[in-house]
Amino acid sequence: SKTPVGFIGLGNMGSPMAKNLLKHGYPVIATDVFLESCKELQDEGAQILESPAEVADKADRIITMLPSSPNVVEVYTGANGILKKVKKGTLLIDSSTIDPSVSREMALAAEKMGAVFMDAPVSGGVGAASLAKLTFMVGGLEEEYTAAQELLTCMGANVVYCGQVGTGQAAKICNNMLLAIGMIGTAETMNLGIRLGLDPKLLAQILNMSSGRCWSSDTYNPVPGVMDGVPSANNYQGGFGTTLMTKDLGLAQHTATNTKTSIPLGSLAHQLYRVMCARGYANKDFSSVFQFLREQDEE
Ligand code: NAD
């Protein structure tokens, strides 16, 4: 029988990911500071413990799925963190999107305890997480990759080895910068079309058979009524929060500044999402940029 897998961070993404491990027959030992999501996973058969340290005491493979760098630092190195109780040889996989330099710090701290840390951020959204169709971008020691792959393939359709620790994050940050630019572009394009008198469904159909097609137009359209089962069909609830996208664009900005790389549209996207956070959009899905742009229009 399979040995238990620890899972820390049962949010929009972590919950469905942990459920897929259960489906594949892995016993899951989980924790989250939000008790309601713990309860939900417990009903699905997971064992719930109080802290990351307790999870580390019981599992020798642990996946973390947390909002941002400070949460990851807390969960790994805090007073009740994983590294307080981690066993030698434990495989630690962090799927949160964070600063690559923090991934490298966590890898060093884990190494000191005889454990192995890999970064494995994901692309795909909540729908892909439920369907086990995520893309994982993995950074870390190549000789540990096969062990990580065994678990990640239960939750994703694509698992890609990127190189040393932190390179998974690098790939993810690049992807999300393009995603933000594409989403804003799709939202403003759809809005212009609607204001020119086009039916939004028809316009989306045309874009999706033309050169403007992108993930934001054909899979995650930001205009209410164009698609079912996406956040725009549900008042922008769930999905990928504007706060999280703003965080990822901040990471793009930070890493671009450090490497003296120009990212004019990435920077503009960052500023736009920051304004949205300050204007009441923080907890909506990032496709709500469509609604935000509509509010800027003159009648
Ligand atoms: P979320 O906010 O829904 O979930 C994060 C969970 O972590 C919450 O349940 C929270 O209670 C828990 N948490 C925070 N601090 C904790 C701590 N100290 N100890 C235990 N639990 C703690 O976020 P999410 O949407 O699931 O995203 C997680 C990560 O994945 C983020 O880095 C995000 O950028 C990335 N991501 C999200 C999506 C998406 O579509 N939502 C897609 C790809 C990547």
UniProtKB/TrEMBL annotation:
Coiled coil: none annotated. GO terms for cellular component: mitochondrion. One of its GO terms (biological process) is branched-chain amino acid catabolic process. GO terms for molecular function: 3-hydroxyisobutyrate dehydrogenase activity. Pathway: Amino-acid degradation; L-valine degradation. SUPFAM superfamilies: 6-phosphogluconate dehydrogenase C-terminal domain-like, NAD(P)-binding Rossmann-fold domains. Belongs to the HIBADH-related family. 3-hydroxyisobutyrate dehydrogenase subfamily. Residues 166-292 form the 3-hydroxyisobutyrate dehydrogenase-like NAD-binding domain. Residues 5-163 form the 6-phosphogluconate dehydrogenase NADP-binding domain. It is found in: Mitochondrion. Keywords: Branched-chain amino acid catabolism, Mitochondrion, NAD, Oxidoreductase, Transit peptide. The keyword Signal does not apply. Its main location: mitochondrion. Gene3D superfamilies: N-(1-d-carboxylethyl)-l-norvaline Dehydrogenase, domain 2 (1.10.1040.10), NAD(P)-binding Rossmann-like Domain (3.40.50.720). The active site is at residue 172. InterPro entries: 3-OH-isobutyrate_DH-rel_CS (IPR002204), 6-PGluconate_DH-like_C_sf (IPR008927), 6PGD_dom2 (IPR013328), 6PGDH_NADP-bd (IPR006115), HIBADH (IPR011548), HIBADH-like_NADP-bd (IPR029154), HIBADH-related (IPR015815), NAD(P)-bd_dom_sf (IPR036291). It catalyses: 3-hydroxy-2-methylpropanoate + NAD(+) = 2-methyl-3-oxopropanoate + NADH + H(+). Pfam families: NAD_binding_11, NAD_binding_2. It comes from Umbra pygmaea (Eastern mudminnow). This is 3-hydroxyisobutyrate dehydrogenase. The keyword Transmembrane does not apply.
